[in-house]
Amino acid sequence: MTFDRREFLKASAGAASALSLAGLSGCATSGATASGKGPKIVVVGAGFGGATFTRYMKMWTPNAELTVIEPNTQFVSCPTSNEVLGGITKMEDITRPYDNIKKIADKWVQDTVVGIDTGKKTVKTAGGHTFDYDRLVLAGGIELMFSAVQGYDAETQKVVMHAWKAGPQTATLRKQLEAMPDGGVFVMSVPKAPYRCPPGPYERACLVAHYFKQAKPNSKIIVLDGNEDIASKKPLFLAAWKKHYGYGTDKSMIDYRPNNMPRSVNAKTMMVGTEFDDVKGDVINVVPPMRAAEICGMAGVRDGNNGTWCTIDYTTFESKVVPNVHILGDSALTNFPKSGSVANNTAKMCAYGLSEIFAGRTPDPAPVVTNTCYSASSDSTAFHVATVFRWDPEKKALVPPKGANGISKEESELELAYMHSWKENVLNDTLAL
Amino acid sequence: MQTSATHTKDLIPVKFIFGWRETAVSSFLEDVMKKKTLAVGLLLAGTLGAVATAQAVDTRARFMAANCAYCHGTNGKSNGAIPSLAGLDVKYFVDQMKAFRDGSRPATVMAKHANGYTDAEYEAIAKYFNAIKP
Questions:
Q1: pLDDT digit string (tens) for B72-83?
Q2: A139-160: string of b/e by CB count within 10 Å (b at 16+)?
Q3: Cβ separation of A418 and B71 shorter than 8 Å?
Q4: Taking CB atoms and an 8 Å limit, are B38 and A8 in contact across chains?
Q5: What separation, in Å, do the N-terminal and C-terminal C-alpha atoms of chain B show?
Q6: Could you report the per-residue pLDDT of A61-105, keeping only the tens digit for each?
């Protein structure tokens, strides 16, 4: 005889009270709401931040009532999606089911949030449902600001991919690269920091160059970087570009152009305009500037960096401007890189902080949190950046202690094996697979 | 190296409970949920009912151990090239962290991670993973 968890809880009041005791560590009342049940938490977005939060919150505060609202039917990983563009892996390799995280959530809602009232503490969906919360967790990732690039309208978006949210965009960009004739030009851009996945664009240049080297050796990649220099793992990317793709020679597959923010794009002429000149491509991949997800705008929590990202309190990731609203993953304005590992780890930090509060304790005033981020430089090599952030009472910030931050000495095959192991483990950890 | 936070110092040391340590109970709970059997569920209910009132979880150690999961797998059970941590001997774990920190064991990412934690935190994380059945 099998039971699902909710039936099981209903079936045994003793079990239910034991479960709540396990979560509340003998302090059973402080996590309870007026209704006598556990705290009502609405999670919007089930990416690395939202899904990890859901899993760990349930583990650490089993009586929390978790409603998860997510528009997508399956999880597609941004990390390692550049390997799809490079023809090294396929879409199915970066796609995972939501089945287990759906079972962990008390309520799984396949829908899009269209309104948030932080006064009444309610969330409205396109499907016409309203959910009330004690705590709201916003894990919506990023909103791409197409209007910041002239001509990047809905029609142009049918031809020009950003592929900065993995999914159909990734698959389409791969098809465009496959269809491009040998000798063609691939134009790609890097938005101004801070943006999702700092090393991602440079990894993309590596893996598309890897594909061209195998299949279209006369082709070129023009990288239009809005930043003044390579924004992440610079010595490692430069070394990889030189070693594998002829960078620095007249045979270079990669033409890197710093301070070249795309200002306009035209899908008919296949031109990208910068402040300096117009660049023609056979395949164009413009990643527009970005800010915290739309839902953060609805909740009025995009208070940082000229109203683009959300400032948070590090102990629980609560918004600094709206109480009981917590912001996870890429939407948050922190000194951590916007990576999958950070979204996964800080989601646990939020679940840890809230679990302490619900158990009647004070959240850890000095948390420790980490980032480990791999980038592939070819089909057989990778390298990393790794950082431990911990609370520094003098600086009043989470900063790396001496020696706790750095990049690989050089690329290696071992690190690619670690990267692929990381991918399996982080996806399993996030989605309870 | 900074000292660790002391807000969990009042917690009772980890002990074995029915062959499990309290720190592993939550993960055990999730495993049980996945299995969804009434028999195991009721056994769990009895087990937790008995222990939950008696002791507290070292929630800080549990959180720090969860930091490791994106590379080493949930509860230190890894897929692929990255080693598992579940069930490792406490002294072995602590010795490896010290070796990563002083460079006597060559490493890729672990030198950075080892420099981010105190000796007391190595010990607390080691105990958490030691309590999980590999």
A1: 999 999 999 999
A2: bbbbbbebebbebbeeebbeeb
A3: yes
A4: yes
A5: 31
A6: 999 999 999 999 999 999 999 999 999 999 999 999 999 999 999
Helices (H) and strands (E) in chain B, counts: 7, 2
Interface test with A, best of B22, B43, B70, B77 (most A CBs within 10 A): B70
Tokens of A24: 């509340």
Residues of chain B contacting residue A403, judged by C-beta atoms under 8 Å apart: 101, 111-112, 115
Per-residue pLDDT of A99-157, as tens digits, reads: 999 999 999 999 999 999 999 999 999 999 999 999 999 999 999 999 999 999 999 99
Q: Token pair of A352, please?
A: 């840890």
Q: Which residue in A417, A414, A387, A413 sits closest to A400, CA to CA?
A: A387
- Per-residue pLDDT of A314-368, as tens digits, reads 999 999 999 999 999 999 999 999 999 999 999 999 999 999 999 999 999 999 9
Residues of B in contact with A4 (CB under 8 A): 36
Contacts of A388 (CB under 8 A, 6+ apart): A368, A369, A370, A400, A401, A404, A405, B112, B113, B115, B116, B117
Quote the CA–CA distance of A204 and A212 in Å, as a whole number: 12
A5: DSSP letter: H
Q: Find the closest chain A residue to B84 by CA distance.
A: A425
Task: Please tell me whether the peptide bond between A194 and the residue prior to it is cis, using omega within 30 degrees of 0.
Answer: yes
